[in-house]
Amino acid sequence: MNAESLDVVYGLLSEARRRYVLYYFLDNEHANIDGLSLQIAAWERDLTVDAVSEDHKQTVMLSLIHSHLPKLADHRLVEYDDRTGDVIADDEFDDIRSTVSRARTDDEQVEVTGDSKESFLYSEPLARSANNDQSD
Hints:
Arc Repressor Mutant, subunit A; DUF7344 domain-containing protein; DUF7344; globular; 136 residues; mainly alpha
């Protein structure tokens, strides 16, 4: 993958909903827009699919249909059939599969470490100040 292609891929991965679409296709070959929207809405709120509100699912679905799926389709990463609502990984997806997989791993690590403010506020300093290092 050349530098220009890498810039395009990172640009596509810079938006969470597009990343979630691609993460979905790491483990699945086919999706329906309704189920995909529901899964992404659940991931966004860290909920089960049963706990997602219809309003949030619809918001996600509209953004996928009008913004994210067309952008991914322009780069031949997914194919979306607006008549049936079917979404599949397209020809170029396999070329970026390893990059998408690394991005998912990085996202999962961020979620696991969570908010580190408390850890930072109550930890020991990482280095001593210059005044403490001087010997008398």
